[in-house]
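Q: I have 508 residues here and want to know how they pack in 3D. Can you give me a structure?
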Amino acid sequence: MILFRKDRNLNVGEVILTMKGIDKSFPGVHALDHVDFEVKKGEVHALMGENGAGKSTLMKVLTGIYKKDSGSITYEGNEVEYASPKDAQDAGIVIVHQELNMMGHLTIAQNIFIGREFMKGKLIDDARMNKEARKLFDKLNIDIDPTEKMNRLTVGKQQMCEIAKAISHDAKVIVFDEPSAALTESEIDELFKIIRDLRDKDIAIVYISHRMDEIKVITDRVTVMRDGGYVGTLISKDCSKDDIINMMVGRVIYEEPKTESNVPKDAPVVLKVEHLNAGKMVQDVSFELHKGEILGFSGLMGAGRTETARALFGADQKDSGEIFINGQKVNIKTPMDAVANGIGYLSEDRKRYGIIVQKTVAENTTMASLNHFMTGIFINKKKEKEVTQKYVDRLQTKTPGVDQLVINLSGGNQQKVVIAKWLVRNCDILIFDEPTRGIDVGAKSEIYRLMNELVAEGKSIIMISSEMTEILRMSDRIIVMCEGKKTGEIDISEASQEKIMNAATLRS
């Protein structure tokens, strides 16, 4: 089903890019099955589908990261095929990736202009790069110091730097791959202003997103993919959320808020944190977690939620505070101490902290429990594969086999591998930090189902989320933070967006 409308963008703008019959296979995976796609000058064209549908693969073929097996790409009237992302950038096609590709030890300005540095004689002109980077940030209306090291930024600010880097190219087509996944509401508003400004300058925007609410706000058309194939194209203003979901998954997805806690009144406290302090972002934080509870942590970006979790897990050093597990005081100085005490942590940055992308699904799944798979000094590969297959089946992970490299999986399926790692370890307390970041609506539903199954089995979950609908749908109780401090504690039966936002902006 292909629908068109006549409006400023679609009537005036001519087609700048056409992909026709694109086919791409990897070992055991037919990633793209003769896909068609086009984008016009001055339009924002959404590309949607479940994780593994082929969206990112299609864009990687476009920008020279992957070589297509067949099909054609026509850009500005000429058939093209780029050998590398640099060739595509030089032609005016730029991609902002979902997974961050910055170099942490370099400054922000050095990252933005890497490979095309300004020179002063034979030396790199850092002063000019800092000046040009600051201009970009002024345009983005965000406060970031270009001389700061990249690894000191939050995931959200790193993502904004990726966007600034893309805009710094003289682009005619910009592909945004989940650009808002790690951004705050105010940062998303600024991003949309920038996208509208780019669209008004006749730049073509391909916008990959799983956030349904964004589609009508920022896009003109929506193309949907499923299982590597083209499903159809809709006009954004004329279609509903249900229309898109049905095309994406072929089934109904229900997302209703929880109205009351599922935790029994007499459920024991499995984790107690008292007066936890860790730098400026964790100040005198205290809370309890009950058996079988999903404890939501809400707040704006920079509220200190992730920092609290990292201090609890031993990933960051705490300054003071006490931690009790099942009533017993524990001393957690390292992640190994946390794991030994039955705590698992799913980081918001799965690529950096959760998985090793160049290792297999089986190797990643068992890495936190490797001692259970050892026979003498050797790994029992048969047992490793059997256990991994069990969790591939349980989590419905889309992979041709447990020997597949994790780098070849979609973002949502990579997240499932991280979850499997901690389930194999049989941790009683699980910290889910942005568990559905960059995951489509169908995969989200599967993650939610799994979380509910885990707490029904007696596991306990701390869930950090920037999505209000997720907090209200999954939490039994909600802890709200602002500027490193706990500013609210709300039972789900009394929770509302207004109450949470009031607490999230309650500065001391």
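Q: Anything worth noting?
A: Residues 1-12 have pLDDT under 50 and may be disordered. The first helix runs from residue 8 to 12.
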